[in-house]
Amino acid sequence: MASSLFVVNKAPLHSSRPCCSLNSHPQILESFSCRPPNLPRTINNKLHLKKIIFSPQLVCCYRLKPVSAISSEDAQSINQYDINYKKSKQVRAGNFEQWDSLTAKFAGAANLPFLLLQLPQIVLNSRNLMAGNKSALLAVPWLGMLTGLLGNLSLLSYFIKKRETEAVVVQMLGVISMYVVILQLAMAEAMPLPHFTATSIVIVSGLILNFMKYFDLLNAEIWHFWEEFITIGGLPALPQVMWSTFVPFIPSTILPGLIAFFTAVLAVLMARMGKLLEKGVKTLGYLAGWTATLLFMWMPVAQMWTNLLNPENIKGLSAVSMLLAMIGNGLMIPRALLVRDLMWFTGSFWACVFYGWGNLVCLYCFNSISQEFFLASTFGFLAWIGITLWRDAQVHGHSSLFTSMKELVFGH
Protein backbone atom coordinates (compact mmCIF):
# COMPACT_ATOMS: atom_id res chain seq x y z
CA MET A 1 0.00 0.00 0.00
CA ALA A 2 1.39 3.34 -1.02
CA SER A 3 1.43 6.23 1.43
CA SER A 4 2.17 9.92 1.28
CA LEU A 5 3.52 12.33 3.86
CA PHE A 6 2.48 15.86 4.65
CA VAL A 7 3.20 18.31 7.42
CA VAL A 8 0.23 18.47 9.76
CA ASN A 9 -1.06 21.88 10.77
CA LYS A 10 -0.58 22.99 14.33
CA ALA A 11 -4.27 22.73 15.11
CA PRO A 12 -4.76 20.17 17.90
CA LEU A 13 -7.15 18.00 15.85
CA HIS A 14 -4.54 17.34 13.12
CA SER A 15 -1.24 17.33 14.94
CA SER A 16 0.39 14.71 17.06
CA ARG A 17 1.21 15.57 20.65
CA PRO A 18 4.36 17.75 20.87
CA CYS A 19 7.43 16.60 22.72
CA CYS A 20 7.06 19.31 25.28
CA SER A 21 4.05 20.74 27.12
CA LEU A 22 2.88 24.21 27.92
CA ASN A 23 1.92 23.18 31.42
CA SER A 24 5.36 24.21 32.61
CA HIS A 25 4.59 27.77 31.53
CA PRO A 26 1.41 28.90 33.20
CA GLN A 27 2.02 32.43 31.93
CA ILE A 28 1.18 31.34 28.41
CA LEU A 29 -2.02 29.63 29.48
CA GLU A 30 -2.96 32.71 31.39
CA SER A 31 -2.24 34.96 28.41
CA PHE A 32 -4.44 32.80 26.05
CA SER A 33 -7.40 32.79 28.41
CA CYS A 34 -10.46 34.78 27.35
CA ARG A 35 -10.51 37.96 29.38
CA PRO A 36 -11.72 41.44 28.70
CA PRO A 37 -9.26 43.64 26.80
CA ASN A 38 -6.76 45.32 29.03
CA LEU A 39 -3.87 47.32 27.67
CA PRO A 40 -1.33 46.62 30.50
CA ARG A 41 -2.28 43.01 30.47
CA THR A 42 -1.71 42.85 26.71
CA ILE A 43 1.75 44.33 27.08
CA ASN A 44 2.63 41.79 29.74
CA ASN A 45 1.36 38.97 27.56
CA LYS A 46 3.57 40.11 24.71
CA LEU A 47 6.61 40.17 27.02
CA HIS A 48 5.86 36.69 28.29
CA LEU A 49 5.44 35.38 24.75
CA LYS A 50 8.66 36.96 23.61
CA LYS A 51 10.62 35.34 26.42
CA ILE A 52 9.08 31.92 25.93
CA ILE A 53 9.40 31.89 22.13
CA PHE A 54 13.15 32.20 22.39
CA SER A 55 13.31 29.68 25.21
CA PRO A 56 15.10 26.48 24.12
CA GLN A 57 12.66 24.45 26.20
CA LEU A 58 9.82 25.11 23.78
CA VAL A 59 11.42 23.92 20.55
CA CYS A 60 8.77 21.29 19.80
CA CYS A 61 9.30 18.54 17.35
CA TYR A 62 6.20 17.61 15.31
CA ARG A 63 5.97 14.23 13.79
CA LEU A 64 4.89 13.69 10.19
CA LYS A 65 1.53 11.95 10.14
CA PRO A 66 1.13 9.38 7.32
CA VAL A 67 -2.04 9.47 5.25
CA SER A 68 -3.00 6.31 3.43
CA ALA A 69 -3.64 6.50 -0.31
CA ILE A 70 -6.56 4.86 -2.19
CA SER A 71 -6.50 1.13 -2.06
CA SER A 72 -5.81 -0.81 -5.25
CA GLU A 73 -9.38 -2.17 -5.25
CA ASP A 74 -10.85 1.36 -5.06
CA ALA A 75 -8.52 2.61 -7.77
CA GLN A 76 -9.52 -0.31 -9.98
CA SER A 77 -13.24 0.37 -9.46
CA ILE A 78 -12.78 4.05 -10.33
CA ASN A 79 -10.85 3.14 -13.48
CA GLN A 80 -13.58 0.68 -14.44
CA TYR A 81 -16.18 3.41 -13.91
CA ASP A 82 -14.26 5.77 -16.20
CA ILE A 83 -13.98 3.07 -18.85
CA ASN A 84 -17.69 2.26 -18.67
CA TYR A 85 -18.58 5.96 -18.83
CA LYS A 86 -16.41 6.50 -21.90
CA LYS A 87 -17.88 3.43 -23.56
CA SER A 88 -21.46 4.52 -22.88
CA LYS A 89 -20.63 7.99 -24.21
CA GLN A 90 -19.15 6.50 -27.37
CA VAL A 91 -22.16 4.22 -27.83
CA ARG A 92 -24.54 7.17 -27.40
CA ALA A 93 -22.54 9.24 -29.91
CA GLY A 94 -22.64 6.33 -32.34
CA ASN A 95 -26.39 5.92 -31.90
CA PHE A 96 -26.90 9.64 -32.47
CA GLU A 97 -24.89 9.59 -35.69
CA GLN A 98 -26.78 6.53 -36.89
CA TRP A 99 -30.17 8.09 -36.13
CA ASP A 100 -29.05 11.40 -37.67
CA SER A 101 -28.18 9.60 -40.90
CA LEU A 102 -31.40 7.59 -40.83
CA THR A 103 -33.66 10.59 -40.28
CA ALA A 104 -31.97 12.39 -43.17
CA LYS A 105 -32.77 9.39 -45.38
CA PHE A 106 -36.37 9.41 -44.17
CA ALA A 107 -36.70 13.08 -45.12
CA GLY A 108 -35.20 12.35 -48.52
CA ALA A 109 -37.57 9.42 -49.03
CA ALA A 110 -40.52 11.81 -48.57
CA ASN A 111 -39.91 12.89 -52.17
CA LEU A 112 -41.51 9.71 -53.46
CA PRO A 113 -44.98 10.04 -51.87
CA PHE A 114 -45.07 13.76 -52.61
CA LEU A 115 -44.16 13.12 -56.24
CA LEU A 116 -46.80 10.40 -56.51
CA LEU A 117 -49.27 12.83 -54.93
CA GLN A 118 -48.77 15.46 -57.65
CA LEU A 119 -47.99 13.23 -60.64
CA PRO A 120 -51.57 12.00 -61.35
CA GLN A 121 -52.80 15.61 -61.68
CA ILE A 122 -49.98 16.43 -64.10
CA VAL A 123 -50.69 13.34 -66.21
CA LEU A 124 -54.44 14.05 -66.25
CA ASN A 125 -53.89 17.67 -67.31
CA SER A 126 -51.55 16.55 -70.09
CA ARG A 127 -54.13 14.15 -71.44
CA ASN A 128 -56.83 16.81 -71.44
CA LEU A 129 -54.55 19.29 -73.20
CA MET A 130 -53.58 16.76 -75.86
CA ALA A 131 -57.23 15.92 -76.37
CA GLY A 132 -58.13 19.60 -76.68
CA ASN A 133 -60.31 19.45 -73.59
CA LYS A 134 -59.16 22.73 -72.04
CA SER A 135 -62.36 23.24 -70.09
CA ALA A 136 -61.46 20.27 -67.85
CA LEU A 137 -58.55 22.24 -66.42
CA LEU A 138 -60.91 24.94 -65.17
CA ALA A 139 -61.73 22.59 -62.27
CA VAL A 140 -58.20 23.13 -60.91
CA PRO A 141 -58.11 26.40 -58.88
CA TRP A 142 -55.08 28.34 -60.04
CA LEU A 143 -55.16 30.62 -57.00
CA GLY A 144 -54.86 27.64 -54.65
CA MET A 145 -51.99 26.22 -56.71
CA LEU A 146 -50.27 29.62 -56.70
CA THR A 147 -50.57 29.83 -52.90
CA GLY A 148 -49.04 26.39 -52.51
CA LEU A 149 -46.27 27.29 -54.96
CA LEU A 150 -45.30 30.43 -53.04
CA GLY A 151 -45.40 28.41 -49.81
CA ASN A 152 -42.99 25.83 -51.22
CA LEU A 153 -40.69 28.59 -52.43
CA SER A 154 -40.62 30.24 -48.99
CA LEU A 155 -39.88 26.93 -47.26
CA LEU A 156 -37.18 26.22 -49.83
CA SER A 157 -35.38 29.40 -48.79
CA TYR A 158 -35.88 28.53 -45.12
CA PHE A 159 -34.33 25.05 -45.42
CA ILE A 160 -31.48 26.27 -47.61
CA LYS A 161 -30.61 28.72 -44.86
CA LYS A 162 -30.63 25.83 -42.36
CA ARG A 163 -28.64 23.52 -44.68
CA GLU A 164 -31.19 20.70 -44.51
CA THR A 165 -30.39 19.14 -47.89
CA GLU A 166 -33.12 16.50 -47.88
CA ALA A 167 -35.82 19.04 -47.00
CA VAL A 168 -34.43 21.35 -49.69
CA VAL A 169 -34.91 18.60 -52.29
CA VAL A 170 -38.50 18.00 -51.10
CA GLN A 171 -39.41 21.68 -51.36
CA MET A 172 -37.67 22.11 -54.71
CA LEU A 173 -39.59 19.15 -56.08
CA GLY A 174 -42.78 20.77 -54.77
CA VAL A 175 -41.93 24.05 -56.50
CA ILE A 176 -41.19 22.38 -59.82
CA SER A 177 -44.24 20.08 -59.81
CA MET A 178 -46.64 22.87 -58.87
CA TYR A 179 -45.13 25.18 -61.47
CA VAL A 180 -45.72 22.50 -64.10
CA VAL A 181 -49.41 22.41 -63.11
CA ILE A 182 -49.62 26.21 -63.29
CA LEU A 183 -47.96 26.10 -66.72
CA GLN A 184 -50.61 23.65 -67.87
CA LEU A 185 -53.34 25.93 -66.51
CA ALA A 186 -51.85 28.87 -68.42
CA MET A 187 -51.74 26.79 -71.62
CA ALA A 188 -55.41 25.97 -71.13
CA GLU A 189 -56.14 29.68 -70.52
CA ALA A 190 -57.43 28.75 -67.06
CA MET A 191 -54.97 31.21 -65.54
CA PRO A 192 -54.58 34.84 -66.71
CA LEU A 193 -51.42 35.36 -68.73
CA PRO A 194 -50.17 38.44 -66.76
CA HIS A 195 -50.46 36.48 -63.51
CA PHE A 196 -48.59 33.55 -65.03
CA THR A 197 -45.84 35.84 -66.36
CA ALA A 198 -45.31 37.50 -62.98
CA THR A 199 -45.35 34.10 -61.25
CA SER A 200 -42.80 32.72 -63.69
CA ILE A 201 -40.40 35.63 -63.07
CA VAL A 202 -40.65 35.16 -59.30
CA ILE A 203 -40.20 31.38 -59.45
CA VAL A 204 -37.23 31.41 -61.84
CA SER A 205 -35.54 34.22 -59.89
CA GLY A 206 -36.20 32.42 -56.61
CA LEU A 207 -34.74 29.14 -57.82
CA ILE A 208 -31.60 30.87 -59.12
CA LEU A 209 -31.09 32.81 -55.88
CA ASN A 210 -31.66 29.74 -53.73
CA PHE A 211 -29.26 27.73 -55.87
CA MET A 212 -26.56 30.40 -55.48
CA LYS A 213 -27.21 30.64 -51.75
CA TYR A 214 -26.82 26.89 -51.29
CA PHE A 215 -23.38 26.96 -52.92
CA ASP A 216 -22.34 30.20 -51.17
CA LEU A 217 -22.24 32.17 -54.40
CA LEU A 218 -24.68 34.88 -53.36
CA ASN A 219 -24.03 38.23 -51.74
CA ALA A 220 -25.51 38.50 -48.23
CA GLU A 221 -27.31 41.75 -49.02
CA ILE A 222 -29.05 40.23 -52.07
CA TRP A 223 -30.19 37.27 -49.98
CA HIS A 224 -31.47 39.61 -47.29
CA PHE A 225 -33.47 41.48 -49.93
CA TRP A 226 -34.93 38.19 -51.18
CA GLU A 227 -36.02 37.25 -47.64
CA GLU A 228 -37.73 40.61 -47.28
CA PHE A 229 -39.46 40.10 -50.63
CA ILE A 230 -40.92 36.68 -49.76
CA THR A 231 -41.98 38.04 -46.36
CA ILE A 232 -43.91 40.91 -47.97
CA GLY A 233 -45.32 38.64 -50.67
CA GLY A 234 -46.23 35.71 -48.42
CA LEU A 235 -47.67 37.39 -45.34
CA PRO A 236 -50.75 38.90 -47.08
CA ALA A 237 -51.65 35.50 -48.54
CA LEU A 238 -52.25 33.89 -45.15
CA PRO A 239 -55.08 36.11 -43.78
CA GLN A 240 -56.60 36.44 -47.25
CA VAL A 241 -56.81 32.68 -47.73
CA MET A 242 -58.17 32.23 -44.22
CA TRP A 243 -60.82 34.88 -44.84
CA SER A 244 -61.79 33.46 -48.22
CA THR A 245 -62.42 30.03 -46.70
CA PHE A 246 -65.56 31.23 -44.93
CA VAL A 247 -67.06 33.17 -47.85
CA PRO A 248 -70.10 33.50 -48.42
CA PHE A 249 -70.81 33.37 -44.68
CA ILE A 250 -68.70 36.52 -44.41
CA PRO A 251 -68.45 39.29 -47.03
CA SER A 252 -65.90 38.83 -49.78
CA THR A 253 -63.14 41.41 -49.45
CA ILE A 254 -59.39 41.83 -49.93
CA LEU A 255 -59.08 43.93 -46.79
CA PRO A 256 -57.28 41.22 -44.69
CA GLY A 257 -54.64 40.83 -47.39
CA LEU A 258 -54.16 44.60 -47.72
CA ILE A 259 -53.76 45.05 -43.96
CA ALA A 260 -51.19 42.24 -43.81
CA PHE A 261 -49.35 43.66 -46.82
CA PHE A 262 -48.95 47.14 -45.34
CA THR A 263 -48.00 45.59 -41.97
CA ALA A 264 -45.27 43.55 -43.63
CA VAL A 265 -43.96 46.57 -45.55
CA LEU A 266 -43.91 48.66 -42.38
CA ALA A 267 -42.07 45.95 -40.45
CA VAL A 268 -39.43 45.57 -43.17
CA LEU A 269 -38.90 49.35 -43.40
CA MET A 270 -38.57 49.65 -39.61
CA ALA A 271 -36.01 46.83 -39.62
CA ARG A 272 -34.09 48.58 -42.38
CA MET A 273 -34.02 51.83 -40.39
CA GLY A 274 -33.03 50.06 -37.17
CA LYS A 275 -36.29 50.90 -35.42
CA LEU A 276 -37.08 47.31 -34.46
CA LEU A 277 -35.72 45.62 -31.36
CA GLU A 278 -33.32 42.71 -31.77
CA LYS A 279 -36.09 40.26 -30.91
CA GLY A 280 -38.33 41.88 -33.53
CA VAL A 281 -35.66 41.56 -36.23
CA LYS A 282 -35.17 37.89 -35.35
CA THR A 283 -38.92 37.28 -35.51
CA LEU A 284 -39.09 39.00 -38.89
CA GLY A 285 -36.42 36.64 -40.20
CA TYR A 286 -38.57 33.61 -39.38
CA LEU A 287 -41.81 35.19 -40.54
CA ALA A 288 -41.66 33.97 -44.13
CA GLY A 289 -41.08 30.36 -43.08
CA TRP A 290 -43.84 30.43 -40.48
CA THR A 291 -46.22 32.10 -42.95
CA ALA A 292 -45.63 29.32 -45.48
CA THR A 293 -46.07 26.67 -42.78
CA LEU A 294 -49.33 28.21 -41.59
CA LEU A 295 -50.57 28.36 -45.18
CA PHE A 296 -50.03 24.62 -45.55
CA MET A 297 -51.54 24.06 -42.12
CA TRP A 298 -54.67 25.94 -43.21
CA MET A 299 -55.19 23.74 -46.28
CA PRO A 300 -56.64 20.79 -44.30
CA VAL A 301 -58.79 23.18 -42.29
CA ALA A 302 -60.28 24.56 -45.51
CA GLN A 303 -60.75 21.02 -46.83
CA MET A 304 -62.55 19.84 -43.71
CA TRP A 305 -64.72 22.97 -43.73
CA THR A 306 -65.69 22.15 -47.31
CA ASN A 307 -66.44 18.57 -46.28
CA LEU A 308 -68.71 19.86 -43.53
CA LEU A 309 -70.64 22.15 -45.88
CA ASN A 310 -70.87 19.68 -48.76
CA PRO A 311 -70.71 16.11 -47.46
CA GLU A 312 -71.45 14.73 -50.93
CA ASN A 313 -68.09 16.05 -52.14
CA ILE A 314 -66.23 13.75 -49.75
CA LYS A 315 -66.64 10.90 -52.22
CA GLY A 316 -64.51 12.90 -54.62
CA LEU A 317 -61.53 12.73 -52.28
CA SER A 318 -58.89 10.12 -53.03
CA ALA A 319 -58.04 7.95 -50.02
CA VAL A 320 -54.70 7.05 -51.63
CA SER A 321 -53.82 10.75 -52.01
CA MET A 322 -54.63 11.37 -48.34
CA LEU A 323 -52.50 8.39 -47.34
CA LEU A 324 -49.60 9.59 -49.49
CA ALA A 325 -49.81 13.04 -47.89
CA MET A 326 -49.72 11.45 -44.44
CA ILE A 327 -46.75 9.25 -45.32
CA GLY A 328 -44.78 12.09 -46.91
CA ASN A 329 -45.20 14.43 -43.97
CA GLY A 330 -44.73 11.61 -41.48
CA LEU A 331 -41.34 10.72 -42.93
CA MET A 332 -40.09 14.22 -42.11
CA ILE A 333 -41.25 14.20 -38.47
CA PRO A 334 -38.20 12.29 -37.07
CA ARG A 335 -35.78 14.71 -38.72
CA ALA A 336 -37.66 17.77 -37.53
CA LEU A 337 -37.69 16.42 -33.97
CA LEU A 338 -34.01 15.48 -34.03
CA VAL A 339 -32.83 18.95 -35.13
CA ARG A 340 -35.35 20.58 -32.74
CA ASP A 341 -37.06 22.60 -35.49
CA LEU A 342 -40.44 23.56 -34.03
CA MET A 343 -41.75 25.10 -37.25
CA TRP A 344 -40.87 22.06 -39.36
CA PHE A 345 -42.24 19.61 -36.80
CA THR A 346 -45.48 21.59 -36.35
CA GLY A 347 -46.18 21.76 -40.08
CA SER A 348 -45.41 18.09 -40.72
CA PHE A 349 -47.33 16.78 -37.71
CA TRP A 350 -50.32 19.01 -38.44
CA ALA A 351 -50.45 17.85 -42.05
CA CYS A 352 -50.34 14.21 -40.93
CA VAL A 353 -53.12 14.60 -38.40
CA PHE A 354 -55.52 17.01 -40.10
CA TYR A 355 -54.83 16.66 -43.81
CA GLY A 356 -53.96 12.97 -44.10
CA TRP A 357 -55.58 11.18 -41.16
CA GLY A 358 -58.34 13.80 -40.70
CA ASN A 359 -59.64 13.34 -44.22
CA LEU A 360 -59.39 9.58 -43.83
CA VAL A 361 -61.69 9.92 -40.81
CA CYS A 362 -64.18 11.83 -42.97
CA LEU A 363 -63.98 9.17 -45.67
CA TYR A 364 -64.47 6.41 -43.10
CA CYS A 365 -67.45 8.14 -41.49
CA PHE A 366 -69.19 8.33 -44.87
CA ASN A 367 -68.30 4.70 -45.72
CA SER A 368 -65.96 5.71 -48.55
CA ILE A 369 -63.15 3.48 -47.27
CA SER A 370 -63.10 0.14 -45.50
CA GLN A 371 -62.59 -0.30 -41.78
CA GLU A 372 -59.41 -2.31 -42.37
CA PHE A 373 -57.88 0.48 -44.44
CA PHE A 374 -58.73 3.09 -41.82
CA LEU A 375 -57.48 1.05 -38.84
CA ALA A 376 -54.26 0.08 -40.60
CA SER A 377 -53.56 3.73 -41.43
CA THR A 378 -54.38 4.84 -37.88
CA PHE A 379 -52.29 2.25 -36.05
CA GLY A 380 -49.44 2.65 -38.50
CA PHE A 381 -49.33 6.39 -37.86
CA LEU A 382 -49.50 5.98 -34.07
CA ALA A 383 -46.75 3.37 -34.15
CA TRP A 384 -44.54 5.65 -36.23
CA ILE A 385 -44.96 8.54 -33.79
CA GLY A 386 -44.23 6.24 -30.85
CA ILE A 387 -41.07 4.86 -32.46
CA THR A 388 -39.93 8.38 -33.30
CA LEU A 389 -40.33 9.61 -29.70
CA TRP A 390 -38.69 6.48 -28.25
CA ARG A 391 -35.71 6.55 -30.60
CA ASP A 392 -35.11 10.28 -30.14
CA ALA A 393 -35.20 9.93 -26.35
CA GLN A 394 -32.77 7.02 -26.57
CA VAL A 395 -30.13 8.79 -28.66
CA HIS A 396 -30.31 11.85 -26.37
CA GLY A 397 -30.13 9.76 -23.20
CA HIS A 398 -33.55 10.83 -21.89
CA SER A 399 -35.54 8.61 -19.54
CA SER A 400 -38.89 10.03 -20.64
CA LEU A 401 -40.34 9.96 -24.14
CA PHE A 402 -41.76 13.45 -23.70
CA THR A 403 -38.46 15.13 -22.76
CA SER A 404 -37.69 15.53 -26.46
CA MET A 405 -41.02 17.28 -26.99
CA LYS A 406 -40.28 19.57 -24.05
CA GLU A 407 -36.90 20.50 -25.55
CA LEU A 408 -38.52 21.04 -28.94
CA VAL A 409 -41.08 23.50 -27.59
CA PHE A 410 -39.17 25.24 -24.80
CA GLY A 411 -35.56 24.70 -25.88
CA HIS A 412 -32.75 23.01 -23.98
From TrEMBL:
InterPro entries xrefs: MEX1/MEX1-like (IPR034628)
Keywords: Membrane, Transmembrane, Transmembrane helix
Presence of keyword Transmembrane: yes
Transmembrane segments: 139-160, 167-187, 193-212, 224-243, 249-271, 283-302, 344-367, 373-390
PANTHER family attached to this UniProt entry: MALTOSE EXCESS PROTEIN 1, CHLOROPLASTIC-RELATED
Descriptive protein name: Maltose excess protein
Species the sequence originates in: Rehmannia glutinosa
